Amino acid sequence: MSTDRTSLLLKVVEVSTSKTGKHGHAKCHFVAIDIFTGKKLEDIVPSSHNCDVPHVNRTDYQLIDISEDGFVSLLTENGNTKDDLRLPTDDTLLAQVKDGFAEGKDLVLSVMSAMGEEQICGIKDIGPK
Predict the structure, then answer these.
(1) Is the dihedral of CA 113, 118, 120, 121 positive or negative?
(2) What is the Cα–Cα distance from 109 to 97, expressed in whole angstroms?
(3) Residues 49-80: tens digit of each pLDDT
(4) In 10-19, which positions are buried (b, 16+ CB within 10 angstroms) versus exposed (e)?
(5) What are phi and psi of 104, to 5 degrees?
(6) Cα separations (Å) of 55 from 37, 38, 66, 78, 82?
(7) How far apart are CA 96 and CA 91, in angstroms?
(8) Is 74 exposed, middle or buried (CB count within 10 Å of its CB: 0-12, 13-18, 19+)?
(9) 84 and 29 in one domain?
(10) Do 108 and 96 touch, CB atoms closer than 8 A?
(11) CATH number at residue 66
(12) Distance (Å, rounded) from C-alpha 72 to C-alpha 83?
């Protein structure tokens, strides 16, 4: 997937292969979705090439507060706070976080992290405070 973004993280959603032709190697056609932006990308590469696979983590944190500048304060497993994440950019998820917090619900936010990037990707309502 050709791009100038060095930390591109993709979820492959489709792979197809072509047979070896008159120009050498069989080819693989990849269709993938960027896990942070949702952008669809395609690429064709020789089937004999290797590709790097990033390690993606998903961690749940309890939401403590939302600052006026759009950062969230999260409670980590060891009792410390994590204050370096912005509210999600996805409109539906953003509305769920803001509305649930305003209603006083206990919310757990799922954070996906890979290659130095982190993003809120999900929400769970664990009941009223």
Answers:
(1) negative
(2) 8
(3) 887 777 889 999 999 999 999 999 999 999 99
(4) beeeeeeeee
(5) 80, 20
(6) 18, 18, 29, 23, 21
(7) 9
(8) buried
(9) no
(10) no
(11) 2.40.50.140
(12) 6
